[in-house]
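Chain X:
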Amino acid sequence: MKKVIVVLVLFVFWVISSCKKEVKPEESTTDTTTVAVDSSKTEALVDPDPTDTIPAGSYGINSSSSKTSDLIRLTLKELYKDDLAKNFIDDNSKRFIFFEYDLNEDGKKEILVGLTGGYFCGTGGCTLLLLDDQGNVVTQFSVSGNPVVIDTTKTNGWKDLFIYSGSKYHIVKFNGKTYPSNPSTLSELKVTPGDGLPRALDFEHEPYAWFKF
């Protein structure tokens, strides 16, 4: 009789141990699934301009950084703070696009900023800004059109620019401190810029996000 009791006790112990082992794989599977779902959420792309129909992943890397747009926004608010306070700048003019490019090859990207609306644009073109990587104004261009074409040649260590103004491209060269502010007064480019050159602010042919300030 004692042998039978011992056998029964051992059998019950074996059954309990087996049940405990079976629970662990289920718990492990549940935990792995939860981690996978959370990971997929963090990979979702953020659309820099939800007002348009352009998919979030279609914008260029040089024209969609939220960090850069925040920096530009601060610069514009400070630069035009008086007219903003007086409501001289309408809502349509409180928009901008940008393009980052290292014009002097120092490892830091400068920022070309395109502005729009009645406050910044006239029959001859619009205002463009060139900022350094800290948001400081290098040049404020007037009567300028898009795109701004960046040449391979340099003057005083900075890339030459071809800026459209007065229905023509003009050659804009760095003078050691800044670029000339009015492209229309400069030498005309006699040929069409090559397709292989970078084209900044070319929102008519490439997807660009419009930001507000």
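Chain Y:
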Amino acid sequence: MSEKLLEIKDLCVSAGEKEILNGINLKINKGEIHVIMGPNGSGKTTTANAILNNPEYTKTNGKILFEDEDITDLKTDEIARKGVFMSFQLPEEIPGISVTNFLKYAKNKITGEPVKIFAFKEELKKYMEELKMNPKNMERSLNVGFSGGEKKKNEILQMLVLNPKLAILDETDSGLDVDAIKTVSKGIEMFKNKDNAVLIITHNTKILHSLKVDYVHILVDGKIVKTGNQDLATIIENEGYGKYKNK
């Protein structure tokens, strides 16, 4: 029997006066890849931000459990230290801090142990080769001057280096060409094992062409209206979200 990693129970979330999530229920076990799909504005990114308790959003009902611990009201950095990672749709540029130093600092904060820089750089180089990234990017300022594809690959690099228990990938495939999507999919496959899980948030199915997933959830108007296997994504690709709206 699979071991439960994340459980969201009847979660309602607002931003300002607007309610965005209207009772989300979701369970993710270790070893699984889940996908949340839905039209723009359906609440996909809000779901990701709610898991990490982004202060811009207010939870009005429900709870979030991570490894059976209630993390609903924990601070974002505390949730991250418990093993939850989130990549961003639009990764930030941070001048003056190299990719290597950023990752070294983040790794140290999560593990609480000093990072051995030579071995760490070798690990970075290995991952960068797998992701078809220029190893010279290690010493560049984080995301500064990076193309959209390089920024997204950099998010996958962070996931591999930090090795969380749950990786939430928000629109990691948006704006990428076919080859870059295949590389990102390869990074996800490199990361996933029986003890961790991945939650992919997307509004299209491109990334699913080169990745095997366990569950696809359709999110419309702040509610999961349908859950199925990978075939559900193919149906959405062919038919769109129309029949799930205004249910």
